[in-house]
Amino acid sequence: MVDTKKKAFGTARRAGTGTIKSNEASTSAQTWISSMSDQASNFNQEKKVLSKYIPTDYINPDPLNPRKLALSSSELKAIVAHKPIDKQWLTEQSDIDWQENYIKEVSQQFSLSGKALTDFCDLLEFAASLRSADRLLNPITVIKKDSSFQLIAGERRWLTHILLSEPSIAALIKDEQIERKTIDSYQWDENTQRTDMSLFERLEQVKRIAANHQGINKVSVRALAKIIGKSKAVAQRYKAVLVYKHPQLLEAIRDNRITDLKKAAMLAQLTKTQLMTKLNPPTVKVQASKPLIKLAAKTNPVAIERIIKAATKELGIKDLANSEIKTLQEASDALNQLLLQVGEMDEH
Predict the structure, then answer these.
(1) Is residue 233 very low, low, confident or very high in pLDDT (cuts 50, 70, 90)?
(2) Cα atoms in the 13 Å half-sphere on the side-chain side of 140
(3) Which 3 state secondary structure label does DSSP give 315?
(4) Is the pTM of this model over 0.70?
(5) What distance in Å separates the CA atoms of residue 164 and residue 173, rounded to the nearest whole number?
(6) Which of 266, 221, 260 is closest to 239 using CA atoms?
(7) Nearest to 264 by CA among 202, 347, 312
(8) CA 46/CA 59 separation, integer angstroms
(9) How far is residue 282 CA from its own chain's centroid?
(10) Which tens digits make up the pLDDT trace of 305-316?
(11) What angle do CA 226, 227, 233 make, to 5 degrees?
(12) What gap in Å lies between CA 73 and CA 225, rounded to an integer?
C-alpha cells in the first residue's frame, strides 16, 4: 500500500520533487546574501574617501612634505588681518596694478624678502587667478585627525584660500590609517607637477620614497624609475647624486649653487678634490712684480688677446682677457693670469 502522505509532501525523491527546489532556493539566497555583502563592503570602502568643504582653520600642514614654503599659515593670516584682499580687485575687469601695490605694501610692513617674498608673490598670483573658493577644480587631500585635518597634498591651494579670506576649502578626506609611503607617493605626484620645486626638495622626496622600497642604495634604477614615474635616465641621475659619498655636493645643491639634475649627476662622478675644484674655482693671484713671462717689445697685443680667448675656451675656464687688449702691458698681465690659473688647476 502506498503512503499517500509522503507522496503529497514530495518525500519519495522523484524527479521534480521538492528536494531540487530546495537546493535552487538555497543557491539563490546565497547569491543574494553575497551580493548584499559586496555592496556593503563597497559602501564601507566609499566611506573611506569623502569629498566635502572643511574649515581652513582646522587644517595642519604636513611637516614631512619636502616642499618648504617660506611663509606659514599664521604669517598669511597676519597679512590678511592687516590688509585683506578687496574682492573688487579680483573681478575679471580689474587690472593687475593692484598686485604690485599690494606686494609693495605687504613686503614693507612684514619685511618680506628672498624666498618668503617669492612665495608670497606666487600665492598672490594664484589667488588673483582663482578669485574664489568655488572656482577650485582640484580639492586638497587631507587625513582626519581627531578634531583637525592633516594636509597631504595641496598646501599652496590651502594657503591661497587663507590669502583670499575663504573660511573653507574643498577637500578629499582619506582614511586616517593611510601609510606614510602612500602619503609620500601622493606628495611626489603633487610636487613634481610644479616646476618651481627646487632640486634639493626633489632629491629629499626621492630619497624618502626610496626608503619605502629597500632604500636608495638597494633599489634598482628600473624600480626607482617606475616608482617616481620618470625615465631610467632621470632615475639614474637621482640615484647617482643621492648615493654620492661626499656631502659637499648636496650642500651645494641645498644652497642653490647647483640647480640642474644633469649637472649634479655629472659632478657625482668626480673625486672629492675634483668636486671641490669645480665648486670653488681657485682665485687668480697676479704677482705683478714677478711675472711668469715677459713679452717682447714687438709683440702684437691683438695676437695675444686671440691666443688667450682660444685657450680659455679650450680649457673651459673663465675668460681672463680684457674686452679689448690694446697695450703690451695689458697683454702681458692677461697672459700671466692665464698661466697662473692653469698652474693651479694642474696642482689639483
Answers:
(1) confident
(2) 28
(3) helix
(4) no
(5) 22
(6) 221
(7) 202
(8) 22
(9) 34
(10) 777 777 777 666
(11) 50
(12) 34
- From residue 300, give the alpha-carbon distance in Å to each of 306, 312, 314, 320, 332: 10, 19, 22, 18, 11
Question: What was the pLDDT predicted at 39?
Answer: 42
- Residue 116 DSSP SS3: helix
**297/312 Cα distance (integer angstroms):** 24
Q: 331, 295 in Cβ contact below 8 A?
A: yes
Spell out the alpha helix ranges (H) of the chain: 4-8, 18-47, 73-82, 97-109, 114-130, 155-163, 180-191, 199-211, 221-228, 232-243, 248-254, 261-267, 272-279, 301-315, 328-347
**Other residues' Cβ atoms within 10 Å of the Cβ of residue 128:** 19
Q: What is the pLDDT of residue 232?
A: 80
Other beta carbons less than 10 A from residue 190's beta carbon: 21
Name, in order, each residue with C-beta under 8 angstroms of 168's C-beta and a sequence gap of 6 or more: 53, 54, 55, 56, 133, 161
* Side-by-side strand order, sheet with 59-60: 50-55, 168-174, 140-145, 148-153, 59-60
Phi, psi of 63 (to 5 degrees): -65, -15
